[in-house]
Amino acid sequence: GQNIDQPTEMTATEGAIVQINCTYQTSGFNGLFWYQQHAGEAPTFLSYNVLDGLEEKGRFSSFLSRSKGYSYLLLKELQMKDSASYLCALMDSNYQLIWGAGTKLIIKP
Amino acid sequence: GAVVSQHPSWVICKSGTSVKIECRSLDFQATTMFWYRQFPKQSLMLMATSNEGSKATYEQGVEKDKFLINHASLTLSTLTVTSAHPEDSSFYICSAKTMAGDTEAFFGQGTRLTVV
Questions:
Q1: What residues in B contact A101, CB-CB < 8 Å?
Q2: Environment class of A34 (CB within 10 Å of its CB; exposed 0-12, middle 13-18, buried 19+)
Q3: Which candidate in A45, A46, A88 is best for mutational testing of the B interface (most B CBs within 10 A)?
Q4: Least confident piece of the model among A54-58, A97-101, B40-44, B69-73
Q5: Residue B41: per-residue pLDDT
Q6: Minimal Cα distance from B96: which residue of A?
Q7: Is A96 in Cβ contact with B103 (below 8 Å)?
Q8: A14 against B41, higher pLDDT
C-alpha cells in the first residue's frame, strides 16, 4: 500500500527558514509534488521532483531521496503570506496523486 | 499554466435537493478529470476519476448513485450531489490532466457546499 506522513503543524518566524518534511512508502513512484493551500482555496502547485536531489525555485526549494522515501520543502525568507497548509502528494504507478494530510504552517511576526 | 474553472464557488442547498458542480478546462482538452472532497482540516480525498466518454471510476466507499459524474466532453465534467444531506457539506475540488502520463494536474477553485 501507500502511506504519506508529514507533520501536522509547524510554526516559524517571519524572515526565517523552515523545512517541512514528508516521508512516504509506495510500491509505484512517478514523482512527488508539493502544493500550497490557503484556507478555503484549492491547492496551488509549488514543485515536482522525480529524480533525487534539490530543485530550487525562488524562495522555495524541494528535495527528494527516492531510496529513503523522503522529501522536504524548504521555504526561505518567510513572509506572512506563506501561512498556509503545505501538501505533499505522491504520484503512483497509475499517475494518480496520493495526498498527505498537509502541514499547517503558522508564520509569526 | 492551464486554467480550470469550477462553478459555483459556493452553494447552500436544502437537505434532499440536488446540486450540480461544473468543472471546465478553459484552454486545454482534459482527457482525465478528478473529483476530490476535503473536510475541514483533512487531506484531499479522491472521490472518482472520470475519462471523457466513459463511466467514472469511483473510489471505495463513494456512492456512485449519490455522486453522479458526467464527463461528456473534453472540456467539461460535472459532479451532481443527489439528495444532499448535511453530512455532504464539504469542499469539493476538481482537477484535470491532458493525458494519463501528465505530471501536473490543474485544479479548479473548489466549491464550498453547505447543506442545511
A1: 42-43
A2: buried
A3: A45
A4: B40-44
A5: 73
A6: A96
A7: no
A8: A14
Q: Model confidence at B39, in pLDDT bands (50, 70, 90)?
A: confident
Q: How far apart are CA A44 and CA A37, in angstroms?
A: 6
| Residues near B61 by beta carbon (within 8 Å), at least 6 away in sequence | none
Residue from the list B6, B42, B46 with its beta carbon closest to the beta carbon of A101:
B42
Residue B2 has pLDDT above 80, yes or no: no
Categorize the per-residue pLDDT at B22 as very low, low, confident or very high, splitting at 50, 70 and 90: very high
Asked if the C-beta of A43 comes within 8 angstroms of chain B's C-beta atoms, the answer is yes
Task: State the cell numbers at B54.
Answer: 466513459
Distance CA B52, CA B102 (A): 16
Query: How many A-B residue pairs are in contact by the CB < 8 A criterion?
Result: 44
In chain B, % of residues over pLDDT 90:
59
Main-chain phi, psi angles of A71, to 5 degrees: -145, 155
Chain B residues with CB under 8 Å of A50 CB are 103
